[in-house]
Amino acid sequence: MSTGGPHGTHAVELGPHRVVKRFRAGDREEGEREWRALRLLAEHAPGLAPAPLAAGLGTEEPAITMSRLPGERLRGRPHDGPALDALAEAVRTLHSALPPAVLADVPPRPGLAHDLRAHLRSWASRVRVPPRGEADAAMDLGLRWLDRSDVESAPDNVPPVFGAGDGNLANYLWDGRRARIVDFEDSGRSDRAFELAEITEHVGSWVDEPLDVRAFLSRFSLTAQESARLRDCRRLLALVWLFLLSFDEERQRPRNPPGTAERQARRLTALLT
């Protein structure tokens, strides 16, 4: 997912001017996606992301060296007007960075709606019937919505964009003036509604300092088709997060505060009703 620290999963070495990100041996594809993204953005949107410095992706421990960006993570801090403006501007710049001919050659990002539907189907056996609690009831409601949804197919009139592939606000760095983006291991071709839903529904957007979703989304001019798709993508990703947070609470050492799954159940229910 993100770039190390309390909200990350990869080994990251921070130097004064550069960062080395190390991937597990089986995660070479993640490194390749990140390296491709950094190179494309350095050409088409310089300054938005770290500059690519070196890549060693054919080794037992794949690694990428990139420049170190200034700023503090937007996750876990209040998001005032200027910070929201900067966040939205960074997202808009990312989505429109690549010329259409270049974007057409970028593979779809992993974890799109059809992938998530498959995961949800494999997880559905864990839902207790009849539901025994708030989370189970919301899962059941969400799965019934999924049965009649066509969320996995973006309409033809929804244009593709370049997507970061991870909505964690820890990946957006704010220096008081501008927001920049890190962590592109799941990047690729996507659509704007799905990528915006990745941000609004990520647990990092509400478990600490909540993102003002209405204010954030108001900074984007969406078509009617994108708005309809955004609603469904938010529902889909909220359902995915409900499962993930429920699984997290079953761990011996959960990563999130107690009751997070129940809070997510209420979020999902509100989106579905």
Please describe the structure with a list of short key phrases separated by commas or semicolons:
273 residues, alpha+beta, Aminoglycoside 3'-phosphotransferase, Chain: A, domain 2, four-stranded antiparallel sheet, three-stranded antiparallel sheet, 9 strands, globular, transferase, transferase activity, Aminoglycoside phosphotransferase family protein, Aminoglycoside_PTrfase
Condensed summary:
One of its GO terms (molecular function) is transferase activity. The protein is of the alpha+beta class and 273 residues long.
Q: Tell me the count of domains.
A: 1
CATH superfamily: Aminoglycoside phosphotransferase (APH), C-terminal lobe
Proportion in β-strands: 5-15%
By secondary-structure content and strand pairing, the structural class works out as alpha+beta
The SSE string, one letter per element, is: EEHEEEHHHHEEEEHHHH
Biggest β-sheet strands, sense, barrel: 4 strands, antiparallel
- The CATH class assignment is Alpha Beta
Strand segment count: 9
Oligomer: single chain
Number of helices: 9
**N→C terminal distance:** 30 Å
Briefly note the CATH topology name: Aminoglycoside 3'-phosphotransferase, Chain: A, domain 2
Poorly predicted ranges (pLDDT <50, ≥5 residues)?
A: 1-8
Biggest sheet, spatial arrangement of strands: 1-2-4-3
Average pLDDT, all residues: 92
- Tell me roughly what share of residues is in helical segments: 40-55%
Radius of gyration: 18 Å
CATH architecture heading: Alpha-Beta Complex
Shape: globular
Domain Aminoglycoside phosphotransferase: 17-214
Protein name: Aminoglycoside phosphotransferase family protein
Organism: Streptomyces bathyalis
InterPro entries: Aminoglycoside_PTrfase, Kinase-like_dom_sf
